[in-house]
Q: What sequence folds into this?
């Protein structure tokens, strides 16, 4: 998980808090300035949900408003990347951040705009004493995504593997260990070090 942001601040290291309440108030104000209407429905886990009914009633498109919102969010300090749903569906950019967000995006549940903060920043609703204690999960950075994997059993040699292994590789490895057919939707690759004799 992200190091405690207050500790990073105290040690003058990169990182800190990202106060969503302030940011959302600014975003709603920009929406009012641009469209004479607050077109933001809500924000959850760095997903911005737009008010589709209101957007339709104004003769606008969701993609048009999402691009405007994404442009405004990209101006915020400590925002690493911003994506619209349309970009995630149709972008051919294959950098690691686009790919990671695209893989976690679901058309019926994710927002119309998704963004990620710079490493070390913890989103919280507002500044308070309790908000400055502890930390949380949910980022795309290695401090949140790196999880130890332990294999134990007959014919599993004691060793440490230092390369990246994907979660999808677990199923690929198990199918070989159990001598079963690979599932048709399997995308992982066997962890050959575990299978080696």
A:
């Amino acid at each position: 998980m992200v190091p405690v942001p207050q500790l990073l601040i105290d040690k003058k290291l990169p990182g800190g808090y990202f106060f969503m309440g302030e940011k959302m108030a600014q975003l709603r104000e920009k929406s009012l300035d641009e469209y004479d209407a607050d077109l933001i429905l809500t924000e959850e886990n760095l997903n911005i949900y737009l008010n589709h009914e209101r957007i339709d009633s104004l003769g606008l498109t969701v993609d048009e408003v999402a691009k405007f919102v994404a442009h405004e969010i990209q101006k915020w300090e400590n925002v690493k990347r911003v994506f619209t749903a349309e970009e995630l569906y149709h972008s051919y950019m294959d950098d690691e951040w686009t790919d990671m967000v695209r893989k976690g995006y679901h058309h019926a549940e994710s927002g119309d705009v998704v963004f990620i903060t710079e490493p070390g920043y913890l989103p919280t609703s507002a500044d308070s004493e309790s908000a400055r204690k502890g930390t949380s999960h949910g980022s795309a950075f290695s401090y949140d995504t790196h999880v130890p994997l332990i294999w134990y059993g007959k014919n599993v040699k004691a060793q440490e593997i230092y390369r990246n292994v994907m979660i999808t590789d677990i199923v690929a490895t198990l199918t070989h260990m159990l001598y079963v057919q690979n599932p048709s939707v399997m995308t992982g690759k066997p962890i050959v070090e575990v299978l080696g004799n």
